[in-house]
Design goal:
alpha+beta, 7-stranded mixed β-sheet, 6-stranded mixed β-sheet, 25 strands
């Protein structure tokens, strides 16, 4: 018994989707087989489940059907487009063949008529004016044929392009579209009546990713809009239905990782001995199963049900849908790294106020209504920090210059080196105070013979780590300036070269 069961809900995972179909069937008492046909070839048979309200499900079989005709309207339309393009190309070729034959005939007639006309002119039986008329008529027809053949050549190119595009679209859509699946649900009812049937299955070829818009308003607040970018090429269109986005990653096979011993040993050179023919190679020292991390859907997964029914076509086109929009207060400052460039980057720092884990994704940033550019958001937990780059602010000017470089006179004359002093100046041309974070670095030695000496930082940095990275935080009033001086030297033996410093 065929059971038309429309799609009523889809849960999209990062790499797959779970589809739910529902229908009501009138069944007789006893065993009834309900057939849900026209299921996509990307369906995973082991994922198929069925539930029947008011009856028992005694079995679900998934069958493969090879169809003579493709049930997908888009594939049929693409096949028709290919046939139309082939007919158009054949029509152009036929018309051009006719014009080519006509051109041949005209040229042969012109040659034969020319000979006869020359003889007639010689014996006086034809007037010279008649020769001109015949020549003009033949030339006009040859010109007409040439114009027609040029038009046919252009039409052939256009028809060829249409045929190529139609074939490419058909190849994209067809795939395994002639192969479909169907689910046979065995129902056992105690009495005749209506049964509500729900069929769920997982399909490959669907995914979703996150994307964001971040808009800094004039009041210093950031509006963060989270979008789900859904893409699917599962072989079936999803009509307007309940769409849920999930971070769970369902898998047909789930295994737990097993930790193998971590062996270390002395490095022993291998003797270069050729292996005799037929010899068996030595077994590896460590052999074990490949560890495959396959997270399961559980409490750690987040799901978001969209507020309104959403349709997604199976054509691979990204479909953007809004997950949520939140507003949060942001702390604004500028970040300058003069050693890398003279720009002061406006930065907004805020706390994730959504109550959800925000997956990683690109962020389009705006200052009010002005588009700034695209940055990236890393996976952020609830109440976790978010840092947004909002572009370069030309009103904060950063200048870095080398004030001095002197040769370093070391002890006993066995060492040599140089001492440099750099000065960085930051000027605030904004109408309000600017908080500017300035980062610089000192050279760090990787060899005992190379030493970093005579380090002088004025003022002292707010932070400094063992890798030589320093950070200052300056609050600069409107029209004000702030300066930092960095001095350091490098000392090394005269007979040893140094890389990374000059």
């Amino acid at each position: 018994m065929d059971l038309p069961a429309p799609i009523v809900a889809v849960t999209v995972h990062p790499r797959r989707a779970r589809v739910t179909r529902r229908a009501r069937a009138a069944v007789a008492a006893g065993r009834t087989d309900l057939v849900v046909a026209d299921l996509p070839p990307t369906l995973l048979p082991d994922s198929v489940r069925a539930v029947a309200g008011g009856a028992r499900v005694v079995g679900v079989d998934v069958l493969r059907r090879d169809l003579a005709e493709v049930p997908d309207d888009r594939v049929r339309a693409a096949e028709a487009a290919v046939r139309d393009a082939e007919r158009a190309l054949a029509a152009v070729d036929g018309a051009d063949a006719g014009e080519s034959a006509r051109e041949d005939l005209l040229r042969r007639l012109a040659l034969r008529s020319g000979d006869r006309l020359a003889a007639a002119l010689a014996d006086g039986s034809a007037e010279p004016a008649r020769a001109g008329e015949i020549g003009a008529a033949v030339a006009a027809q040859i010109t007409e044929v040439a114009a027609a053949r040029r038009a046919h050549a252009e039409a052939r190119v256009d028809a060829g392009h249409r045929l190529t595009a139609a074939r490419a679209e058909l190849d994209r859509l067809r795939g395994s579209a002639r192969t479909r699946r169907e689910a046979v649900i065995g129902i056992e009812a105690d009495a005749a009546g209506d049964v509500d049937v729900e069929l769920t299955y997982v399909v490959d070829g669907a995914s979703w990713t996150s994307a964001y818009d971040a808009r800094l308003d004039d009041d210093g607040r950031v509006t963060l809009t989270w979008f789900g970018m859904v893409v699917q090429e599962t072989g079936e269109d999803w009509p307007a239905c309940e769409l849920t986005l999930s971070t769970a990653r369902p898998s047909v096979t789930t295994t737990l990782p097993e930790l193998e011993p971590w062996w270390i040993d002395l490095a022993r050179p291998r003797p270069e001995i050729a292996m005799a023919a037929g010899a068996v190679p030595a077994a590896p020292l460590l052999r074990g199963k490949a560890v495959e991390a396959v997270p399961e859907e559980g409490l750690a997964a987040g799901t978001w049900r969209l507020a309104r029914p959403t349709a997604v076509a199976a054509d691979g086109t990204p479909h953007r849908t809004t997950v949520t929009t939140v507003r949060a207060d942001a702390r604004l400052d500028h970040l300058a790294v003069p050693v890398l460039g003279p720009d002061a980057h406006l930065r907004a720092t805020l706390v994730n106020p959504s109550g959800h884990v925000l997956p990683a994704g690109p962020v389009s940033t705006f200052l009010a209504d002005a588009y700034v550019g695209t940055t990236a958001l890393e996976t952020t937990a609830p109440d976790g920090g978010i840092e947004l780059a909002l572009g370069v602010d030309d009103r904060v000017v950063v200048e870095r210059e080398l004030e001095s470089r002197t040769a370093h006179r070391a002890r006993f004359g066995a060492q040599r080196g140089a001492v440099q002093r750099w000065r960085t100046t930051v000027t605030n041309h904004r109408p309000a105070e600017a908080r500017v974070v300035v980062r610089d670095r000192l050279p760090v030695s990787r060899a005992a013979e190379v030493k970093v000496v005579e380090v002088e930082l004025v003022p002292e940095p707010a932070e400094r780590d063992e890798l030589g990275r320093c950070e200052w935080v300056a609050r600069i009033p409107p029209g004000g300036r702030w300066e930092v001086s960095v001095r350091y030297g490098v000392e090394h033996p005269k007979d040893v070269g140094v890389t990374g410093y000059r």
